[in-house]
Every structure is written in C-alpha cells, then in structure tokens.
Amino acid sequence: MKKKIIAVIGGKSANQDYYDFAYQVGKLIADNGHILICGGLGGVMEAASKGASENGGFTIGILPGFEKKDANPYISIPIVTGISTARNSIIARTCELAIAINGSYGTLSEIAYCLDLGKTVLGYKTHDVKGIISINKPEEIKAYL
Amino acid sequence: MKKKIIAVIGGKSANQDYYDFAYQVGKLIADNGHILICGGLGGVMEAASKGASENGGFTIGILPGFEKKDANPYISIPIVTGISTARNSIIARTCELAIAINGSYGTLSEIAYCLDLGKTVLGYKTHDVKGIISINKPEEIKAYL
Amino acid sequence: MKKKIIAVIGGKSANQDYYDFAYQVGKLIADNGHILICGGLGGVMEAASKGASENGGFTIGILPGFEKKDANPYISIPIVTGISTARNSIIARTCELAIAINGSYGTLSEIAYCLDLGKTVLGYKTHDVKGIISINKPEEIKAYL
Amino acid sequence: MKKKIIAVIGGKSANQDYYDFAYQVGKLIADNGHILICGGLGGVMEAASKGASENGGFTIGILPGFEKKDANPYISIPIVTGISTARNSIIARTCELAIAINGSYGTLSEIAYCLDLGKTVLGYKTHDVKGIISINKPEEIKAYL
After folding, report:
1. Which of D109, D115, D129 sits opposite C116 (nearest CB)?
2. Tens digit of pLDDT for each residue in D11-58?
3. Chain B partners of A129 at a C-beta cutoff of 8 Å?
C-alpha cells in the first residue's frame, strides 16, 4: 500500500457533530496508513488532526500565519507559510483526496481549488457545489482511500 | 468621487452572452472613473478589460504565470505574480467590489475569497453561493459603484 | 517610447541620503514616462513613490499585508497581497529594471529574485552582490531606462 | 530532545564537494533525530535528502511547481506549492536553522529570508552575507542542533 496525502478541510470552529465526524475521518486516514494534511488550526482541522494523531497517524498543518505555535497540538509537521489564505491552494495541490466537513467561505475556496485541479472531494454537510460527492458517515471515505 | 478598484472575475473562455456582459461591465467601470482588476487573461477577463480600455479606463491584470505577455491586449498594468491560482486571493484582497460572470471552479475560488473578506459580490449566471447578489443587466452594477 | 515598470527596492526606514536618492530616482522614472513599482510602504519606498507622484508619475505598491491603508500616500494603485514577504518575488517578476537603495535583508531577497530572473539591478550603497551595477547618482539610471 | 525542522538550502546542481557536504549534513540531521526541510528538487537538495533518508530521517520538500513527481526520490513529504520561488519564504519561515551550501541567487533569496526572520544560517562556500556563520565541515552543525 502506498501512502497518500489526504486533506480534511473545514471551519476553525466546529459543533459536536462536525468535530466527531472529523475525528473519525482523521482516525480512518491514520488506520489506513495515510497522511493527513489540513490548515493546521482549530475546529474541524483540530478534530481531524486529533483523530489521526491519537491513532498513530501523521499530520501536516499548512499554517496561514507566521508562527508554528498557531498549530493545533496534534500537528506533526507545522508548515509556516505566512501567505494567509493563499495557502488554501497549497493544501489543494498537495492532497490526493479531500474531505470537506461543513465550513464557510474559506472551506469553499479549498473545495473550488481541489475541483479545479480534478481532485476528488467528499463532502459532509458542506457547500452544495457540483462535483462534490456527498457522504453521511465517516466510513464512506474508505472506498476512496 | 474616489476611485475604486473593481474586480471582474470569470472564465478564460466566454460565450457571446458572457463576453458582451463583461464588456459592458468593463465599460461602466471606466465610465464611472473606477479601475478594473482581473486575472489578466482571456475570455471574461479580456472582455471586461476591453470594455474598460476602449472607454478610457485603466486595467490591472494579476497574472498567474511568469510572463507579462500572458496578459490580454487591454491590460494597462500587468502584475506578474508567478504564484498560479494562489493569485486569486490577491484579486479578492485588492478589490472593493467584485462582479462574477459565469465561470468555473477558478471563479468559484475567487467568489469564496471575496465573500470570506466581506466584499460585495454581484453575479451574472454564475455559481449559486449564498451571499452573491444576482444581477441580470450590466447597468445594475451602477448602484454598487 | 514604451512604458516600462521600474522597481525601487529598499528599507522601510531611510536616512536623508537614501530618502533624497530615492526621491530623485522616482522623479526620473516619472519624468521619463515610466511606471514605478515598489513594496508600497515607508522609507525608501515612500520616497521613490513621492518623487514619482509629485512629478506626474504613476506608482504601484505591492503591499505585504491585508489593508490598502498600509500604502504610503503616494501610491496610485495599492495591490493588497496578504502574502507578506513572499510578495517580494512579485515585485521582481513584474519589473523590467530594479534600483536598490541601501536596505537590509528584505531588500537582499528582492535583489536575489531580480538577479535570479536575469533582471538588471542598479545599486546605491546597498548589498555587495555579484551582478549588481553600482551607481552613485540618481541620473545614472537614465542610461538603463 | 525535541525535534527541530532544519533547512538545507543550495543549488539544483552540485559538484561532488557540495553533494558530499550536503549528504553528510542530511545524515547528521537524521542522526540527531531532526527533520529536514528543503526545496525538494535536485543537486544540494537531493544530496541532503538522501543523506537524511538513508539514515532513517524524515524529509519535507517544499516544491515550487505543480507535481509531486518533481520531488527527488528521498523526499518523505512533498508539499506541492505551485507558487514557484515565492515558496522560498515558506522554507525560511518553517525552519529553525538553515544550512546554506554554495548556491546561486535562489539560495541567496532563502538566506535573505532566513536572516530577515532572525534564523541562524550556517554557510559552506556560499554567498558572503553579513550574519552567516561560516562552516568548513559538516560536523560543525552539531553545535547548533
């Protein structure tokens, strides 16, 4: 099995539903030996990182700001870009698959970049954009790993 | 009257409807003494630049590539970024108002960035994103200039 | 005569010598019908912008931050990049000629980008880098416009 | 011991002297449990990545282009930025220490960014820039890890 880099994208804050979903997605990415990439901050990003990290996975945080301490505690490798939301394009270019969990306009920009690059995007209660494959349970990502 | 920088965003190719609409939008931006910013390439970007340029307006092209010759012939100032589609965030940050005309996922990323920054986005036959103000005629932009 | 985009690069603060030199360089760029590009902030950038602006010239500021109000008062077009010092590469890609006036490490990165791209760099009391053409008076730039 | 992210910066091509030096530096970074970050391409970047990878280390390649296959074979995590040489600022922001080995203007821009951020830069037969600490043997980096 070859390791893939899988993106989890979503908002800086997350309700319990989104947090739990993201955690399980992160866990599944780790359980299947893949690497998680995300924006490195809180909310959905933190939940997915926690799920991966607590299950032996490896996590990359593509941080928008200037300090590695901005990263949530579950990031293995903080990449400090300093380019703010322009870093969304780097997440899209680096991943092989993206899972979007809810999220606002920042998440929408990441979805758009991923689809523009022809990457598969799975979505849970997120934007209604043509090309997203809607999922209802974390386990559904397994078919795409 | 203070000059504003107004973005026109849309695809690299455009049918006659979109081309004509973009041309008229560019013309109105120029007629009202404002500055046009766009991605600097063809299609909707070219049409809007042409409409502005042929009516005494000033146009900025935020180019994704490495050569100023990538700019359409109606660009007054080609900004050569070399950062590919990450330049979409620069268009969004620089403009005070954006008009989206049709467009695919690249345009969607620009819409998302604009809305994330709280900028007003007017849309003509473009993505159905909450927050976009739909317009049907170029003249409707005048209320927002 | 074809308009060129000419960069003036240098520090955010400037002593009287550097300020005066930058002002005269900006004036000469304007007097010769060319466009000034710079980082848009204070010091050498402001002096050159002032010199161009007060003599009928046109000035572009490639701002590192998030607000157009960061621009010095002599910037005609503030480009709001939000990508911090990564914007230094955009200045280098966009200009056809660069004049470096003193400056610290930020200026050095711009010099390096310009030389990497094969752009001519004129330098006044700046870093000692192979490839820079040293000048002692503002008028010396005229031979390169 | 806490893992640090250490940058090795240098040219896309390398003579035997630079290649061997970079390999040993990469090996030392790995031997001491740290993580290597570099531009991900050939020459000095490849040599350092090989030295780290063949000795159990972990390597991050901050790629300028659009394809992860641009990475040299010793990169553990290819970050695909698509922002060309603007990615040099990301290497500088992410590392805690940089070792410059020879290199041309691209390397000079990375040195400048690192010094601008207050990062320690060790240099082997590289640019003569104030602030670089000159080293003659790979082992000398150990004092800074």
Report:
1. D109
2. 999 999 999 999 999 999 999 999 999 999 999 999 999 999 999 999
3. 108, 127
Asked whether residue A12 carries a pLDDT value surpassing 70, the answer given is yes
Structure ipTM = 0.97
- Cβ burial of C143 (10 Å; 0-12, 13-18, 19+) is exposed
> Is D82 touching A (CB cutoff 8 A)?
yes
Cα separation, D126 vs A31, whole angstroms: 44
Q: Is C67 on the interface with A (CB under 8 A)?
A: no
Type of residue at A131: G
Residue C14: predicted pLDDT: 96
Structural tokens at position B73: 């012939």
Tokens of A82: 């300093």
Closest partner CB to D82 (pick from A60, A82, A93): A93
Q: Does D82 touch chain B (CB under 8 A)?
A: yes
Q: Is B8 helix (H, G, I), strand (E, B) or coil?
A: strand
Print burial letters for C33-63: b (CB count within 10 Å at least 16), e (below 16): ebbbbbbbbbbbbbbbbbbbbeeebbbbbbb
**Interchain CB contact of C66 with A (< 8 Å):** yes
Does D108 lie at the interface with A, CB-CB under 8 angstroms?
A: no
- Contact state of A82 with C82 under an 8 Å Cβ cutoff: no
